[in-house]
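Lab notebook page, bench 4
Experiment: in silico fold of construct C2
Operator: M.H.
Input chain length: 66 residues
Purpose: comparison with the prior construct
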Amino acid sequence: MACKSCRSDNQHKFGAEINIHFPGREGLDKPAVLVFPEVVVCFDCGVAQFTISEADLDRLAKGAAA
């Protein structure tokens, strides 16, 4: 699949570990959500994309609503 930003095919997939923090002062009291997505990086423009699993998306939604 071509890069959505520059349409290059010069991309590679990487395993990643991303710690997502909730914004603002109220976010300081909420635990961060650690996710392990596969990240696709474009070597021509630097755009990186990943998809969050349904389980992790649910944890983010519950944390944002709290």
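Observations: The chain has a mean pLDDT of 93. The radius of gyration is 15 Å.
Next step: discuss at group meeting.
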